[in-house]
Amino acid sequence: QVQLVESGGGLVQAGGSLTLSCKAYTNFFGVSAMAWYRQVPGKQRELVASISSFGNVNYASSVLGRFTISKDTSTKSLLLQMNSLQPEDTGVYYCTMQATWGRGTQVTVSS
Question: How many CB atoms lie within 10 A of CB 24?
Fold first, then answer.
């Protein structure tokens, strides 16, 4: 059974940075693909970034060059470094692996 706990969200001004963390309580962290999604009210949850079990990464075009996804195997955490944040990056950010979702962490970017 997998449990995911996100943290690191908050309020930041446009142009600022945040790092999100998703702590994974599982024995399969090192061999699992994981991803970050975000959702705003009234819209579908959208993929932000993903990382395969081999370390291959993929980004939404809207965050390419600004966000970096990575895995910290020492702490079993999925990270999302977010730079040059824009108001359109506002939303609840969720991490997922093996069809399990965390509860999300709110990111709000003010203009």
Answer: 24
- DSSP sequence for 44-106: --EEEEEE-TT--EEE-TTTTTTEEEEEETTTTEEEEEE-S--GGG-EEEEEEETTEE---EE
Closest CA to 69 of 32, 34, 17: 34
Q: Determine contact, residues 20/79, Cβ cutoff 8 Å.
A: yes
Buried b (16+ CB within 10 A) or exposed e, 49-84: bbbeeeeeeebeeebeeebebebeeeebbbbbebee
In tens digits, the chain (111 residues) has pLDDT values of 899 999 999 999 999 999 999 999 998 888 899 999 999 989 999 999 999 999 999 999 999 999 999 999 999 999 999 999 999 999 999 999 999 999 999 999 999
